[in-house]
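Note on ligand handling. Small-molecule inputs were canonicalized before submission; formal charges were left as drawn, and no protonation-state enumeration was performed. Where a ligand contained multiple stereocentres, the stereochemistry in the source SMILES was retained. For magnesium ion, this procedure yielded the string shown in the input block below.
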Amino acid sequence: MAEKIKVSEAMVECLKAEGIKVVFGYPGAAICPFYDELYKSNIKSVLVRHEVNGGHAANGYARISGKPAVCIATSGPGATNLLTAIATAYADSIPIVCITGQVNSEQIGSDAFQEADITGSAAPFIKHTYLVKDGSMIGRIFKEAFYIAGSGRPGPVLIDVPMDVQNEMIEFSYPKSAVIRSYKPTSKGNALQVKRVIKEIKDAKKPLLCVGGGVFLSNAKKEVRELSERFDLPVVSTMMGISVFESDDERFFGMLGMHGSKTANRAVSECDVLLLVGARVGDRAISNPAIIEKNKRIIHIDIDPAEIGKNITADIPLVGDVKTVVLQILKDAPKLSHSDWISEIKGFDKQSDNKKSKEGKIDPKEFLSRLSEVMGENTHVVADVGQNQIWTATHYKMKKGRFLTSGGMGTMGYAVPAAIGAKLADEKSEVLAICGDGSFQMSFMELATAVQHGADIKVIVMKNNYLGMVREVQDKAYGGRLIAVSLEGSPDFIKLAAAYGINGVSVNDEKSMTEAFELLKKNTPCVIECVVDDFESTL
Amino acid sequence: MNEMKHTISVLVENHAGVLSRISGLFSRRGFNIDSLAVGVTDDPEISRITIIVSGDEHTVEQVEKQLNKLVEVIKVKTLKKGEKLERQLVLIKLSVPLEKRSEILTIADITGASVIDISQTTMTLLLADTYPNVLRFEEITKPYGVLEEVRTGTIAIQKGSETMTFKK
Ligand SMILES: Cc1ncc(C[n+]2csc(CCOP(=O)(O)OP(=O)(O)O)c2C)c(N)n1
Ligand SMILES: [Mg+2]
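Structure output:
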């Protein structure tokens, strides 16, 4: 008979078997047995300063590593603090595995101290949950959890482990694979549909490719770029699809949608065939699908059958993993040319001239564009939420690095913790967190985490003294009755950084901008504040 | 809009919590459930849920697809009109004085209901029938004074040799 081990030790063995090197979390009594086993392992345990940020850090780590990442919380308030991060990961289909402690099995349902039904409360915005009742199932549950999180349309999975279960003694072996009869995601595309897609694009006069976050989830950047090249397809992207193409790619015309570029939106309205790849047609990207459905042919490639036909009716639906399907298409794809159509789109481009900024204020768009020129080409950029997010999405010129943001949920405070996760997943590349002065104040406590764990992230705070995006809404739609949007009382961000032992520069003129760009070259975390006009507009 | 009632049969893993995932999905996505019935199948590991939803074709398609996304859902099928057999079960407790007992027995006889309990002042009837017949039965029994009524959700099966089972 095999030697028995504690479930908590088995949990760590599961993580090792999954190749987990770092976990992000926050302990409490109910998860102590597990932490005690982590103590004995080589897995790096990162203490975040708030559970939600553990979830966001795992989110950033997962996006960059391309594999499920782990976050941990204790029962009750620890677990409920994770909820926003779970919803954020779910909305963007990011694979994270959340491990929570739970009160002892026999106390469940008794409103015990720090008891919260976390599997129940996460249910509406999580891919799957487990409440572990029998310790001997732990291996199978972990194997399934990682498999479910990372396969098909990825997403968060939660494993809730009562404290007594963590202390159970079991015979343990980690299954080699997960066999779930009720879960069989499709990866290969239907051959007939693939043929139809090729024909449709061949017949099109003005085809347009729209790429979404699904391209990254499927690790298909290279293949999708090749598709654009082979068919000579102009490209636009959703916010989640930014950086699939480099910003200066000759066929790339920027982000579409409510906050997108005029060129991209005009290309969408004038194309005759729209090829959506790993894009779910969210309302911020395509606000009026009915119009688009009416006068163009739509090809929709997505791994989630439920996304096809949900927001827009596709003429040619094609269910499958983006990479697999695009490779299928490329196998039989002829070389095409659409140079006239591409020049036509180039002609749409009427850049509005940069206006002059007020004395002591910086034009955020120009700043971000210049910032992208001084940063290395592999720099990953994490945009927070608000005007700062839109400025970054539209004006930071992405090269080889990845653009990350909370696209689906629009969760303020995402940038700093996600940047820490991204940095720990790819320590060779620079990672920028670009925040607003509001969103930075939702997670600046994580500067301590960055310092403690040597995550050299560069934080840019776009300071307009307002919850700018909401201020703008109140100005435009509520007669300028500004309420609860002024950030008066905010700390001096440079002094705040100094309190964490982090250097900073406030940028309000050419000279300070040069200084800031110098500081960014150092191998240490830094905080750069960019002073913009209080009433700067989003677009 | 073409708002119709649709019968959806779902095979699920017989796990704790599955039912709440399914009912939660309906409320979260704003689908309208008319009825839901659940019970274990001949395979004790698998339960079968019958859901009646109102909505147009697009809604039903989304219901099917969203149900399929739940990890513990094994199979989803919308049973077509004309190809399905549906039944509901209703228990009705009537206030019945002695002199009316034979009348009630006649009604039971004609409608195919059975009398499953009797007391000095009441009779309890059971009917398992289609939804329209259950409604008719309610109409007929109403004048006798309904003290209590309990109905199950509809369950359904395909006609003929068609089955919806899961082969291991
Ligand atoms: C957690 C959370 N709360 C509220 C909002 C609503 N919201 C969207 S943008 C925004 C303002 C963000 O302010 P700031 O970070 O200063 O960015 P700015 O728009 O000024 O660039 C708010 C409050 C949100 N997206 N997330
Ligand atoms: Mg602001």
